[in-house]
Amino acid sequence: MEQPHEYGAKDITVLEGLEAVRKRPGMYIGSTGPRGLHHLVYEVVDNSVDEAMAGRCSRIDVRLLADGGVSVSDDGRGIPVEAHPTLGKSALEVVLTVLHAGGKFDNKSYAVSGGLHGVGVSVVNALSSRLVAEVRRAGHIHRQTFRRGVPDGPVEVVGDAPLDPAREGGHDTGTTITFWADAAVFETIDYTWETLVTRFRETAFLSAGLRISITDERRPDPETGQPHTESFHYPGGLRDFVTHLNAAKEPLHPGILHFTASEEDSDGPHELEIALQWNAGYHESIHTFANTINTHEGGTHEEGFKKALTAVVNRYARDLGLFRPSGKEKDLTLTGEDIREGLTAIVSVKLADPQFEGQTKTKLGNTPIRSFVERTCNEQLRTWFNEHPAEVRVVVSKALQGARARLAARAARELTRRKGLLDSTSLPGKLADCQSNNPVECEIFIVEGDSAGGSSKMARQRATQAVLPIRGKILNVEKARLGKILENKEIQALITAIGTGIGDDFDVTKARYHKIVMLMDADVDGAHIRTLVLTFLFRHMRELIDAGYVYIAQPPLYQIEPAGAKGKDKIRYAFSDRERDRILSDLDGDATGSRRPRINRFKGLGEMDAEQLAVTTMEPAGRTLLQVSMEDAAAADLMFTTLMGDDVEARRDFIVRNARDVRFLDV
Fold first, then answer.
1. Active site residue 521
2. Is 448 tagged catalytic?
3. Cα distance between residue 85 and residue 144, in whole Å
4. pLDDT confidence of residue 104
5. For range 375-399, the mean pLDDT
6. CATH assignment of 435-555+626-630, given 3.90.1170.30, 1.10.1740.10, 3.10.129.10, 3.40.50.670?
7. Under 8 Å CB-to-CB from 166, ≥6 apart: which residues?
8. Is it the case that residue 11 has pLDDT exceeding 60?
9. Rounded mean pLDDT of the chain?
10. Which residue of the set 93, 374, 448, 637 is catalytic?
11. What number of CA atoms fall less than 13 Å from residue 567's CA on the CB side?
């Protein structure tokens, strides 16, 4: 009989240097999927942004190399290369090989920094098959190379830095980091252009005057042979950001309210910048940042802003006699929700010692910032309102409309609740529910039409999979308030089936399914219906997306049956034209006769029988699901406004710009 193992000091494993990073990469970058891959680029760029915030960098150039590498170059001071006073090796090597090493911890080199809560460029080095660091400093170009975090050798001087009379010392300075993500670590090493462009555009908005360019050398233009480049430079900073987000919206007033403030206390310097403008839409779009880091979950800076805004608007509504609830409206009050209807606002703070909740940098926790932001906003908003009485009247009128709509929506919810239309204990009749009551293992497939619904119900695994057919195209919620939305029967069915409620009643913990899967036809109409459902979830159930509960199913476009094949196990499925062509090429290589494979193009889910749908799309073992995530709420907000809003010209321009990326066209 085997003796029980005794747990002692000898069992404690010490991982030296960057070994821990390679052993558990997810602990440092979140995942080894696309999100973690792109995080490597952000870490390097954020170091350059910190130089910009210190006033020492004016441009950052990012290049996606043809061989899969990424190069990030700036014109900052350059990472120090002299020997570290205690470690006895180059400071450059220390920064690239020692966790938590850098110049951001003493508040001397950097008063504020976005990298303080990051994982550092050393983690990028550890997770790269190769990394090359070049530093232009003290008139020379210094270079050091690494493989999987291990130096190939010491720092070497490889040349003279270019002359630049405008620089102190007469030579150009800066840092260039080029790295190749390790394919043995990451699920994919293919960077998504739009993901990076969105991030860098946002970073440029938050760093007024900084120029960020990104060049894609992987796929040159077929006509010119030149790589695609985009450059972002916004001297107006947050004002330009609000203009960008409101481009497809109708502003309620001319001009953008913009102000800055700064102070210093025992915790160090604080800086605040806010830009805002109301529009005619029904949704609030408030985006907050701390040291250029997108704080998706808000925090103390957002709390201070909202409290001040609510107080100031209510005060002016009363003082100007615009808000005198009486008669039928005696219970009417202006809540923060009413005041923020149609508001686009950017709140950006910079502070010496940001305290984020968790490693994800999604919520700011510094308590003093709340009072600083609230106090500043009270003063600045009062000043602006005093100087713009006409705008105040428009804003208050909009808020009153929102308040009346909120009361109407509440009445609509009460009515539908009394009728049992939103009661999760009275589920929609067309819902084929699953047997399990455990939300973690339960899935609901939202399908279009009764025909597809019938196939899906037969194909599902009854224990854990539910099916909800919806008829036609649901209401476009981008153009409607909640009261109108609740009148739509298909949306009622969605709310009831999901079980979380909506509006004030929403509670993500009551979700009846932890996978909400959109299963629509792979054509234009299917894409439109999917976008309508996504718009509803984004605007009114965003926490479901944040929780990772929303998915898109990928039904196949083609069924390919090899010539002379016997048995269903020989049938192949293609989910794109490219995959179809690859399968046909493979079959041609194996063919011994002149007979061609039989190709069946699925025009819709209704053409697939239950077995085909189960094998390709619904059974966990064989399907492909795309999880809907939201890297950037501001970009998502702009996208839904552009695609589903009233600005036809903005939508047309978007379609023209992105026409070359269309994967299919069904006529």
1. yes
2. yes
3. 19
4. 47
5. 93
6. 3.40.50.670
7. none
8. no
9. 84
10. 448
11. 2
